[in-house]
Hints:
Layout: H1 2-30, E1 34-35, E2 47-48, H2 52-67, H3 74-94, H4 98-115, H5 129-149, H6 156-175, H7 179-199, H8 209-228, H9 232-237, H10 240-255, H11 268-274, H12 279-301, H13 305-324
Antiparallel strand pairs: 1-2
Amino acid sequence: MDWILSAAVAALVLVASFAGTGLILRFLRDRAILDHPNERSSHARPTPKGAGLVVVPIVAVAWLWTGWATASHVVPVVGCALALAALSWADDLRSLNPLLRLAGQAIAVATVLVAAPPPGLVFAGLLPGWLDLAATGLLWLWFTNLFNFMDGIDGIAGVETAALGLGSALVAVMAGLPPSFLLYGIALACAALGFLKWNWQPAKVFLGDVGSVPLGFLLGWLLIGLAATGQWAAALILPLYYLADATVTLLRRGLRGERVWQAHHEHFYQLAVARGLGHAQVVGHVLWVNVVLVVLAVMAAGGLPEVALSGALVVVAWLLFFLGAGTKTGT
């Protein structure tokens, strides 16, 4: 029955996301809600933004439908994700103060951690309980923001969301975790795939902050749940490329004395585009590395966490080198 339900969720979410994105694209075009190129962007023309207005509610409905009867934590998680979507939509339209955005995200993280704390220690017992919870909140807040930062070229956010969602589902099956993990992951993956058809190079529409912020929030919660049930290695392996790219870029900018909170064009994937690779080529490399990371995460869940983590570090280090220094204009 779980597999029948999973297949039904996958089909419904995929179709709804694909059709809904096509419909919202018309709305965004008619109202000229566009993402204009700036110092952070890698696109050359104004492009409609705001597909998250459809993608996030579809994921929210799927999570509530599949988790309502068995998982009391799903209501505050989904509620906070929708609140972040509303805040981020206002930011898409009017560019809110960064401190206001960060405060809203921090409140959402804190609310869920109080109302529905993780089922166990996230940092594998390395920290006392109160410090584990505080560190979890900070990490979740960082992940939510880095997921938004990394949404800078066509297709990358959709590929990453699909990989993390599918990877979480497979890890849940391998580790014998509750069915809710499987269904939540499938819903995220299929929503991303439905959107990806419209966002692949050349993108017809972007998620906007209304999509990338709450999706990062939901994915962060799912990864925290994996870590808190003992799958800390898998939870680290799955998003390792995003974590590494965003964190290393931030550290490099900080060490140079730059304002790390300002928009920029220095992520590794952006450097690859600047050196001549197309968006689809860059995302293709990210996709294949994510496939390897998913396999390694499943290995970790199967009892080989140290081996899998070592392999993941090597693969991600290679990708960062390739994107940051290994590409040449015209290749």
